[in-house]
Amino acid sequence: MKERVNYEMAEADLKKLIEASKPTPCMMIGSYVTPTPQENANMAWAKLGKKMGFDPMTVQPIPGKSERFFSAVPVEGEEAIKEKDFFFTFGYGQIPGASYYCKIKAVDISEAIEIMQKRTLKYAFCYGSAEEAGVERFSLKECFWDEAHRGWSDHE
Predict the structure, then answer these.
(1) Are 52 and 10 in contact (CB under 8 A)?
(2) Euclidean distance between CA atoms 52 and 106, whole angstroms
(3) Whole-prediction pTM
(4) Phi and psi, residue 113, nearest 5°
(5) Do 31 and 88 lie in a common domain?
């Protein structure tokens, strides 16, 4: 078993963790269920773990120190927290349209949605796999975000 390491997070990171732990109002649209405050906190710890190089499931406070200080087991190489692909589909009347999907790499679904919302608010659903999104079943074509033109394209 790896030895624990002491870490100190930045004040901004602590604010993000506290904010993530708060309940958020939501409106149910479609089948997407918003994460609970605990799930949001877990996702915030996962992002911080990726950024700082520790396993978020091993975090423990350091007695006698402020909440910015904690210990955890470091991760590197193959053990590091990996980004996954998330698939966004579009509905009729949305840009680029119902026959397309967009793939976003992110640590978790909240980060994927955050990235997508910076590009557009016009998407239908987010899925954790191409199969769930129906890429093959509905013959969806992949579209790409063109940062230079701030728009969608059907080629990289």
Answers:
(1) no
(2) 16
(3) 0.53
(4) -65, -40
(5) no
Write out the two tokens for 51.
Answer: 């950024």
The Cα–Cα gap between 9 and 121 comes to 32
Question: Each residue's pLDDT tens digit in the chain (156 positions)?
Answer: 678 999 999 999 999 999 988 887 776 666 556 677 887 888 888 889 888 888 888 999 999 999 999 999 998 765 566 778 999 888 766 666 678 888 988 877 777 888 887 777 677 688 888 998 889 998 998 988 776 566 666 666
The CA distance from 30 to 28, in Å, is 7
Task: Identify whether 121 is part of a domain.
Answer: yes
Helix residue ranges, H only, 21-84: 37-52
Clarify whether residues 13 and 58 are in a common domain. Answer: yes
Q: What is the CA radius of gyration of the chain?
A: 18
- As a whole number of Å, the end-to-end CA separation of the chain is 43
Nearest C-alpha neighbor of 124 from the set 102, 152, 153: 102
